[in-house]
Design brief:
Blueprint: H1 3-29, H2 43-48, E1 54-55, E2 59-60, H3 62-75, H4 81-109, H5 114-137, H6 139-148, H7 150-166, E3 174-177, E4 186-187, E5 193-194, E6 207-210, E7 215-218, E8 224-225, E9 232-238, H8 243-258, E10 263-269, H9 290-303, H10 308-317, H11 323-333, H12 336-340, H13 344-361, E11 370-374, E12 377-380, H14 386-397
Parallel strand pairs: 9-10
Antiparallel strand pairs: 1-2, 3-12, 4-5, 6-7, 8-10, 9-11, 11-12
Length: about 400
């Protein structure tokens, strides 16, 4: 290898190693939603907060890129014959991994993390320089040797993807004890100020208080699951297109069946979509139809509350399908006349109140779902499994079997 080529690879690998190390530290520190240029609901927080950012639910995938770049740096200053084979394998792994993770962002997550793309871009550059250097300088035999390391690289990257897919999901939950001023006025991007109204406490029936009585909810008028008279009524802010919200829904559903007289749930949809949520970043492309799904859910509740629980569960299942599918389900469950005459102003009022609340609750972290458990206890994100959630609720609420 020519000295100039070695130094180019060294420089690229050092930059990539430093960036990967920084991402690893930020991931472990829980700072993925506060990186420069990566605010609430951005591509960074969506990608780095997804299950594809972790291996076995504990190890950031960036740890493996750190190891790859470190191995590449070390190999540049070694002369043994087998090191040429290792460098070829490392190059193919970087190239195949870049193709996989870039495709993952564009076609599965449908959102992009600029820092991740920078790491993968450096990986592609390193692979290109290393592979072309070897192939161009040693003839047909070298090119055949390069291809022999391609298959192992594909197998290794595919194995990592399978472990991420079938392995345990990362635990994203965080329990905060929020202060009473959490629901103070929030600034809308653009300069206006959104004032918290009392639409959640309008009407008649059981009244719940949180955050030092600064936030109240009326159970009966709002969409809810479980018994109105349950000992504890939790408040869940969520999005039907949010994977973590869907998993949390399943956990809470099971726990309400286990503790029917102790647990009930008010469900307040918050679309993580720019079309109706001004707090989402401009250009955010994931969470398609989230606004439509939220409005449809509130319409069904208002038109025929007795079928809401069934529709609520079904909407999570068909949230990745066209909106027309969900609408057809709604009309199959609800009297069309009732559905068509629902008060649109009530729907918009509740939806905008939900969105304002989410903005207030997201000052520390935008992670969804958000579950108000009691008084000032706020759970952000889903727990690793239902047992973790049950243990947490037992500690906070003293649930009895």
């Amino acid at each position: 290898m020519k000295p100039a080529t070695r130094w180019i690879l060294f420089a690229l690998s050092v930059v990539a190693l430093l960036l990967s190390s920084w991402l690893t530290i930020q991931k472990w520190a829980g700072n993925i939603d506060s990186l420069a240029g990566c605010g609430s609901g951005s591509g960074c927080s969506n990608v780095l907060g997804s299950k594809w950012s972790m291996v076995m639910g504990y190890v950031p995938v960036s740890v493996f890129s750190c190891l790859l770049y470190l191995a590449m740096i070390i190999s540049l200053w070694m002369r043994e014959a087998w090191v040429i084979w290792l460098r070829s394998l490392l190059s193919w792994i970087l190239l195949v991994a870049a193709i996989w993770f870039i495709g993952l962002q564009f076609f599965i997550l449908r959102t992009v993390c600029p820092y991740c793309m920078a790491v993968h871009g450096l990986g592609v550059g390193i692979a290109f320089v290393a592979l072309t250097s070897r192939a161009g300088g040693q003839g047909a035999g070298a090119r055949c040797g390069l291809l022999r390391t391609l298959l192992p690289a594909i197998v290794l990257v595919a194995s990592l993807a399978l472990i991420q897919f079938y392995g345990p999901s990362p635990d994203t939950h965080r329990l905060d004890k929020s202060s009473s001023d959490v629901f103070d006025a929030v600034a809308i991007p653009g300069g206006d100020v959104a004032m918290i109204t009392d639409i959640h406490s309008a009407g008649e029936g059981r009244l719940l208080s949180f955050m030092g009585d600064t936030k109240t909810y009326r159970v009966e008028p709002l969409p809810h699951l479980g018994q109105v008279g349950a000992k504890y009524v939790l408040i869940k802010y969520f999005d039907y297109t949010c994977e973590a919200c869907s998993e949390m829904h399943e956990y809470l559903d099971a726990l309400m069946l286990k503790y029917p007289s102790q647990l009930a749930l008010i469900v307040l949809p918050v679309p993580l979509e720019r079309d109706c949520n001004p707090y989402m970043p401009v250009g955010l492309k994931d969470h398609a139809n989230a606004c439509k799904f939220a409005r449809l859910s509130l319409r069904v509740w208002k038109a025929q509350p007795e079928v809401f629980a069934e529709f609520h569960r079904t909407l999570f299942e068909c949230s990745k399908q066209p909106y027309e599918v969900a609408e057809a389900v709604a009309y199959s469950l609800v009297d069309p006349v009732k559905l068509d005459v629902v008060d649109a102003s009530w729907i918009e009022g509740v939806l905008q109140q939900n969105i304002q609340d989410y903005a207030s609750l997201s000052r520390d972290t935008p992670v969804m779902p958000k579950l108000l458990i009691k008084e000032s206890a706020l759970l952000n994100g889903k727990t690793k499994n239902i047992d973790t959630l049950e243990n947490l609720l037992e500690q906070e609420l003293k649930l009895q079997p």
